[in-house]
Write a structure and sequence with these properties.
Helices cover about 10% and strands about 45% of the residues. By secondary structure, the chain is mainly beta. It has a domain at about 10-25 and about 40-60.
Length: about 60
């Protein structure tokens, strides 16, 4: 959780969350039968931006 007061400057951030199967282990049943683990790849992107609508009075964040 992040709490911020409004400011008269624009600010923001961006991120990417990556998960793949490189560090995953095989489950018990795949180990017993000698099977291969399934390939998995997931990317999640996001961003936030905030700034003034009316100077010193109204602000937005999204």
């Amino acid at each position: 959780m992040v709490t911020k007061s409004g400011s008269n400057e624009f600010h923001g951030s961006a991120f990417e969350f990556l998960r793949n199967s490189a560090m995953d282990s095989k489950n018990f049943f795949l180990n017993r039968t000698g099977g291969r683990k399934a390939s998995f790849q997931q990317h999640q992107y996001g961003a936030s931006v905030g700034g003034p609508v009316i100077k010193d009075k109204t602000f937005f964040f999204g």
